[in-house]
Write a structure and sequence with these properties.
It is a single chain. The protein is an all-alpha fold. The chain has one domain. The chain is built from two helices and no strands. The longest helix is centred in the C-terminal third of the chain and has 21 residues. The chain is globular, with a radius of gyration of 14 Å.
């Protein structure tokens, strides 16, 4: 996931990983809270929030974050 202001890095990574099992995503969020369609257990919500905070921090400080794919997840 690449910060929206870092289009050059996004383009570079898309070219570099073309044909690989990697998805490069441009972060289009504006900081608003995203809502989930389904209700989840409290433990899962807490884990999701911690993961989201780490991703947000990495995007702010480095301009990108490496996020594992969550199969069957949000």
């Amino acid at each position: 996931m690449v910060a929206r202001h870092n289009i050059q890095l996004y383009d570079y990574l898309r070219r570099e990983y073309a044909g690989e099992p990697v998805t490069v995503i441009l972060d289009r969020r504006h900081g608003e809270r995203r809502e989930r369609e389904e209700a989840t257990a409290s433990e899962r919500r807490q884990a999701d929030r911690r993961r989201q905070l780490r991703v947000d921090e990495a995007i702010r400080t480095r301009g990108f974050a490496v996020v594992p794919e969550i199969i069957g997840g949000a």
